[in-house]
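Notes from the 1:1 (GR / supervisor)

We went over the backlog. Supervisor wanted to see one worked example end to end before approving the batch request, so GR pasted a single chain during the call. The sequence is below; no edits were made to it. Supervisor asked that the structure be written out right there so they could see what the output format looks like.
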Amino acid sequence: MKLHCLVIVVLMFNLPNSVISANIESPQRLNTADVVSIQISKGLHGKYTKTYKAKRFWEKNKITNVVNWINIATENNIENDTVVYGYPDFLRIDFKNGENIYISYAQKCEVRRNVDSTEYTCKRIDDYITYKQGEETKTLYSKQLFDWMKSI
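Structure output shown during the call:
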């Protein structure tokens, strides 16, 4: 019996972590080194626009924070309407390979259809963001990123 316990303990120390414990991965993994810039657009036709560029050392910290917040965000299956309503605030991340990621506030919309039009009344879902990369759209929980986007 003691020998069996010793063998199990020795095996546990020599096995990779993924065999011993569940390997929980973030739903998205971004690398700060791959980011060229982050652009924030807010209001009517992007009335307020701010761009952080990776080549500017004084802006690198903002890019690092945004990437880290996305990497630690958790994916959620809450109901989120992805209609474009009004003039949404969004964040665009540009990568060296030419790809883009779009981040916006997650929202819940009430739709009222009239005879000749459709009305949307949308409200943000606190602490949730919509993450769009190519054809893939996810709802993520990230209080830090949500709060930072609101503060700008």
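Supervisor's comment: The first helix runs from residue 2 to 14.
Batch request approved.
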